[in-house]
Predict the 3D structure of the following.
Amino acid sequence: MSAGRETRAAGSAAEGLVCPRCARGYPPSERFCVACGMPLVHASGGEQKATARQRRARKVKPQYAQGQLVKVARAQHQSEAEFIEGLLLEEGIPCMLRRSRGFDVSEMLAAGPRDVLVPASGAQAAREALAWEPSDDPAQEGSGA
Ligand SMILES: [Zn+2]
């Protein structure tokens, strides 16, 4: 129910062995994977190859993962939305992409704009992360300093 999912610290499976190839788990008494014959490695040892999703999940900061989802940005299409998602993840902010309201027409499903939503606790950081400063803005010439 709550958004704050606890990530269990490594350590409980310190004794476990795992096959580096098929990721099968073994007790510490084993030496080789029975399926592929690979020498087993410690499950909690060095960084295994993590899936993209795991890497992303690891980046998320729990303090940014709380509260209601709020809209912080709007993307014109899916790939822009994914770009924004990547930016936010770099800051540790989880986000969710949702089709913008009013574009629920079937032809628009694939191409329509997307709302980018983040948990309320991450909204401020998300807005800052997304605050691109337009480099060529003629409106801002010289403000009295
Ligand atoms: Zn194996």
Q: What stands out?
A: The first strand starts at residue 17 and ends at 18. Residues 19, 21-22, 24, 33, 35-36, 38 surround zinc ion (CB under 6 Å).
